[in-house]
Amino acid sequence: MESVVLNNGILMPQLGFGVYQIEDANEAVNSVKVALECGYRHIDTAAAYMNERQVGQAIKESGIPREEIFVTTKLWVQDVGYENTKKAFEKSLQRLDVEYIDLYLIHQPYGDVHGSWKAMEELYKEGKIKAIGVSNFSEDRLMDLIAFNEIIPAINQIEVNAFYQHDDLHQFNKSQGVYTEAWAPFAEGRNNLFQNEILAEIGAKYNKSIAQVISRWLVQREIIVLAKSVKEERIRQNLDVFDFELSSEDMKKISELNTGESQFFDHKDPERIKNISNVTFDI
Ligand SMILES: NC(=O)c1ccc[n+]([C@@H]2O[C@H](COP(=O)([O-])OP(=O)(O)OC[C@H]3O[C@@H](n4cnc5c(N)ncnc54)[C@H](OP(=O)(O)O)[C@@H]3O)[C@@H](O)[C@H]2O)c1
User: Fold this and answer.
1) Fold for the domain defined by 3-277
2) Phi/psi-derived region of residue 50, left when phi > 0, alpha when psi is between -120 and 50, beta in every other case
3) How far is the CA of 184 from the centre of ligand 1 (A)?
4) So what's the pLDDT on residue 1?
5) What residue ranges line ligand 1, CB within 6 angstroms?
6) CA–CA gap between residue 78 and residue 91 (Å, rounded)
7) Which of the listed residues 183, 215, 216 should we mutate to test ligand 1's pocket, taking the one with most ligand atoms within 8 A of CB?
8) Domain boundaries, the chain
9) What is residue 283's predicted lDDT score, i.e. its pLDDT?
């Protein structure tokens, strides 16, 4: 598995296995175990996904040493602020049943994220987190965090897929030394991604699936890719993207699929912010 080097020198596998919306407990344990067996060494969960326990169980049952697996989890909005973040972090550690987290992210750019960041800086300095970062931060929010704090986020995890390529934010992240990590790289199949003729045509040239073309396109853009699947054949397939290279012509064809619009929702929409801020989980 290829890795990237984060701004603090930490190595992070460029392909990660996402567990969002794997709600059934057995399915969550099994999928993570299969992902680890297939070769994933990077798992992306969140307190809000309600499956940190299952991720921890799968890691234990895999028999793979903890230090060989890169584990990301995230702080939900109900727990922002200095004190709450410290408590929420301890609970995530307990649920995952690990001694440290490789990457801890602020899940959404709302509420007292500065208080959270102070707490995360301290946890990082204590060695309880190997790298700290954010998710769904736009340029202005990212700069606000950078300007008023000591540690620059290692990661900004954002939506990036063929239809919402987010190159402006990716370039901004890069300019600040922040690695871009793509969530929903397949747009969860929206906009008929898996039936897209242009992507299928490109895939046929390299004998690769649409999912592999997309993952490879992100790898070549120097973006970390998170993909979710509960099917072994797809999990295996999604890892198999390091034996081909898309030509610049094919990269250009994919870039032309950009609509410039989120396939999910706009993180700057006031109604959405209001709604998300009220979403709580029994975690
Ligand atoms: N930070 C955030 O706010 C945020 C938001 C969303 C997601 N994420 C993270 O990013 C990860 C990935 O995003 P996502 O789960 O939303 O969506 P995604 O990975 O873009 O898409 C997952 C969907 O694609 C299907 N799929 C996967 N591989 C396939 C293949 N090779 N061929 C055909 N279909 C395939 C899956 O179905 P099957 O499972 O049936 O195979 C599933 O329906 C999440 O799991 C989570 O860790 C973070």
Assistant:
1) TIM Barrel (3.20.20)
2) left
3) 5
4) 82
5) 18-20, 44, 107, 135-136, 157, 183-189, 194, 209, 211, 226-231, 234, 237-238
6) 14
7) 183
8) 3-277
9) 79
223-252, pLDDT tens digit by residue?
999 999 999 999 999 999 999 999 999 999
Number of the ligand 1 atom closest to the C-alpha atom of 182: 10
Closest atom, ligand 1, to C-alpha of 234: 31
Could you state, in chain order, the average pLDDT of each consecutive group of 10 residues for the chain (283 residues)? 96 98 97 98 98 98 98 98 98 98 98 98 98 98 98 98 98 98 98 98 98 98 98 98 98 98 96 93 84
Q: Which atom of ligand 1 is nearest to the CA of 74?
A: 1
Angle, CA of 222, 136 and 11, to the nearest 5°: 40
Q: Find the 249 Cα to ligand 1 centroid distance in Å.
A: 27
How many whole angstroms from 151 Cα to the centroid of ligand 1?
A: 30
Tokens of 269: 């929409």
Q: How far apart are CA 217 and CA 208, in angstroms?
A: 12
- Position 282 scores a pLDDT of 83
Cα(227) to centroid(ligand 1), Å: 5
